[in-house]
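Subject: 4-hydroxy-tetrahydrodipicolinate synthase structure
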Amino acid sequence: MTTPAPPFGRALCAMITPFDEAGALDLDGAQALADHLVTEGCDGLVLSGTTGESPTTTDAEKAALVTAVREAVGERASVVAGVGTFDTRHTVELTLAAEKAGADGVLVVSPYYSRPPQDALEAHFREIADASGLPVMLYDIPGRTGTRIEPETMIRLAEHPRIVAVKDCSYDLLGTQKVLNRTELAYYAGCDEHILALYAVGAAGYVSTVANVVPAQLRAILDMFEAGDTPVSARLQQRATPLIEAMMSAGLPGTVTAKALLHALGLPAGPVRAPLRPAGREAADGLLAEYERLVAA
C-alpha cells in the first residue's frame, strides 16, 4: 500500500508577516525569512494565516506577500495563502488574487463571528473551491471561529476534487481519525503539541507556528518517525514541549511570541500590529531561555 505524497509537503510553517519599524509590510524581510525557513527544513510556507496577522493586513499586502515569497523560495517549497474571511464573496476575491500571485494552494478558515450552520458552512467552502484552480486546505479551529467543521461535513467536502487538506486545530482526535479513515484528506496538525500524535495515526504533517523559530527541530520529529525510530521521535516531541507551551499556551498569542523570539535571534520580524502588543521584557527573556534549552539539547 503506497501512501500518496502530501499535497503541500510535510513540514509547513505558519509564517509570521514581517513589518518594518514603522509597521509597513517588509517584503525584503519576508523573502529573507522564507529562504531561511526553507533552508532549515520547511517544505511549505503558509502565509497570511492566524500567525501571519491576516486580520490586520490589506488585500494588496496579502497578494504582494505571496508574490515576494514565491520569488524567494521558487520551487523549493509550497506556498499556501490564507484567504479565509467571514464573507464568502471576499474570500473568493482573495482566492483569485492568491492564484494570480503564484500561490500553490489556499488556506480557508471557517467563517468567524456569524457562526453559520453546517449546510451553510459546506456551501461556503464549495463556492470557494469552485472559484479557482487552486487546491484548498480547510482550517478547522473552532476555538477562534466559534464553529466546528463537523466530521460528517468534512467527509462530504472531501468529495470535492480541489478540497484536499485540513489544518486541524479541533482538539478532537476521535473526529480526526474518523475523517482520516473515510477520506483521502491530508491532515496537518495545527497545534504543535499534536505533531507526532496526528502523524502517527496518518496525518500528512504539520502547519506550525513554533517552526518560525525551530524549523529543523520540528522537522526531525517527522524524520525520525519516518525512519522507524518512534522512541527518538517521541523524545524530540517531548523536548519541544516547554517551548511549545511557552509560545502557544502561556497567555500570549503565537504571533507575539514568535516575533519576540525572531527579533532576539536577529531574524526578520518587526512589530505586531494593533490590537496585538509586543511581548514584555520578562516574557521575551523567558521565551529565549526555553529556545536555548531546546537547541542545546
